[in-house]
Amino acid sequence: MAALPDEDRRRTWAHLMRELSDNVTLQGIAISKADLRAALNAVDDWVDENSTSFNQALPQPARSGLTMRQKVVLLSFVILRRAGLLRAKEDDDGER
């Protein structure tokens, strides 16, 4: 997958800013909107530049059996879980 077009980056940045203000877990960011946009652009560039390395890190048969979109979803799940933003059904302790 190629880097996001500028309009997609802008929309992602706008969504992220809403999440940062609405989600108590993410509140308290100490950089400007412009700096946040620059960071988002840098992350997108890094993902684009390192996609081959990520693909090579996957074991077979995932490397050849998953589409690039599926690989990105897989990576996203791991990252969201690490950030504490992804809860699995298996995490339920009966509180829902």
Strand fraction band?
Answer: under 5%
Give the CA-CA distance, first to last residue.
37 Å
What are the secondary-structure elements, in order, as H or E? HHHHH
User: How confident is the prediction overall: mean pLDDT?
Assistant: 90
Tally the helices: 5
Name the poorly predicted regions.
none
Q: Care to count the β-strands?
A: 0
How many discrete structural domains? Answer: 2
Radius of gyration: 16 Å
Task: Name the shape in a single word.
Answer: flat
Main pleated-sheet profile: none
What is the share of helical residues? 55-70%
Assign the structural class, choosing from mainly alpha, mainly beta, alpha/beta, alpha+beta, or little secondary structure.
Answer: mainly alpha
Tell me what the structure shows.
The protein has 96 residues and is mainly α. Helix content is 62%, strand content 0%. It has 5 helices and no strands. The longest helix has 17 residues, at 6-22. The protein is flat, with a radius of gyration of 16 Å.
Provide a concise account of the structure shown.
With 96 residues, the protein is mostly helical.
